[in-house]
Amino acid sequence: MWRMIEKGDLPIPPRKDKDSKVMVPSDPLDLDDYTDEQADIVQVNAKAKNLMYNTISGEEYKKSPSCKTAKEMWYKLKATHEGTNKVKETRINLLVHEHELFQIKEGESI
Fold first, then answer.
1. CB 95 within 8 Å of CB 61
2. Which helix (H) or strand (E) holds 24?
3. pLDDT reported for residue 22
4. Which residue, among 67, 74, 61, has the nearest Cα to 5 in the 3D structure?
5. Closest Cα to residue 92, out of 54, 52, 64?
6. Which 3 state secondary structure label does DSSP give 49?
7. What are the b/e assignments for 84-101, b being 16+ CB within 10 Å?
8. Superkingdom of this entry's organism (predicted)?
9. Global confidence as pTM
């Protein structure tokens, strides 16, 4: 699991279309459409994130509620706990402020 936290989510591999036998993009909406390999990867990704949720307190969770991967959670927690207390407090405030604003940053697209 630690490797998943450091490296990020494993990519979901493409699957063959049932009718045309052509590879189609991954991440189907319906769970029944996942291949066994895709389902295993989704499960491993979820386990890594769940591990992070179960190891931090509720107060720590409030600092990273919008994180979609365990890697994002790790880096936000790491950023808030490195440095002196004043640096930590400033970083926490910046992250909370960024979350509250939830705006598209310069150079980002929808």
1. no
2. strand 23-24
3. 58
4. 74
5. 64
6. helix
7. eeeeeeebbeebeeeeee
8. Eukaryota
9. 0.53
**How many Å apart are CA 41 and CA 73, to the nearest integer?**
19
Backbone angles phi, psi at 22, to 5 degrees: -100, 145
At 66, the amino acid letter reads: S
The span from the CA of 9 to the CA of 88, in Å, is 27
Q: State the average pLDDT for the chain.
A: 76
The per-residue b/e assignment along 45-79, b for 16 or more CB within 10 angstroms, e otherwise, is beebbebbeeeeeeebeebbeebebbbbbbbbbeb
Query: Which residue did the predictor score with more confidence, 12 or 97?
Result: 97
Both tokens assigned to 94? 């910046």
Range in 7-11, 18-22, 87-91 with the lowest mean pLDDT: 18-22
DSSP conformation class of 82: S
Question: What is the maximal distance between C-alpha atoms in the chain?
Answer: 60
Phi, psi of 16 (to 5 degrees): -85, 135
